[in-house]
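Quick log. Single chain, no ligands specified.
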Amino acid sequence: MTTQQLIDQIRSKKSFLTVGLDIDLTKIPQHLLELEDPIFEFNKAIIDATHDLAVAYKPNVAFYEAYGLKGWTSLQKTIDYINSTYPDIFTIADAKRGDIGNTSAMYAKAFFEDLNFDSITVAPYMGKDSVEPFLAFKNKHTIMLALTSNEGAFDFQILNLNGKELYKQVLEVSKNWKNSENLMYVVGATKAEYFTEIRKIVPDSFLLVPGVGAQGGSLAEVCKYGMNADVGLLINSSRAIIYASNGTNFVEKARAEALKMQQEMEEIMSLKFNV
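-> predicted structure:
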């Protein structure tokens, strides 16, 4: 998917909602456990209920790997279902990969060619040669960790090195990598006060923003400081939507939570862009 196609979808749906598909068999409705593939059936139900409200889905790969081969099969079925049924939806493999060049090239092949995701999250700690293999794929996007929403982010990411915070140096250096136009960045919603500085460095890039909802991030604050002329934000919500209910009404409750977020986004967009 091209960046313009993603922008067009955001404008059409008046939404920049990403639904995180972080599946835990202890949290999904128990009646689904009787089915042959409860993970896929749960995902399919959530996707069918929210596809007109969301512009992206983000399966966290760890939640599938934890169930071994069956979990990986469920992930494959989920991404195949999205690509075949709702091909305009942007897909994110939340895999946080990052290794030496030849290993990263294999990770890229696995997620971009075999699974056919539109994007993947990566960790930049090993530098340019661990990220550029992902960037080499046309119309695929690499979403690099920049400033995350977890408590441990403060251990390294905001350390001042030679007069500049580490996360700022990561952003600035990455702009010079080959095919950097395919880069997006992860910035946590719980760090809303940093968005102004981030936009000075990457004004046009898309930012994937976890942390709204269950982690306490404010959508209004993120949009105030992080939105650009193309919106430029993908706001992720996982637990607040997919686990809104663990009963037989889980589909209706998930849609209600997604609709609530989409309506708030539509209001923000109408004020920002007069649409």
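The chain has a mean pLDDT of 94.
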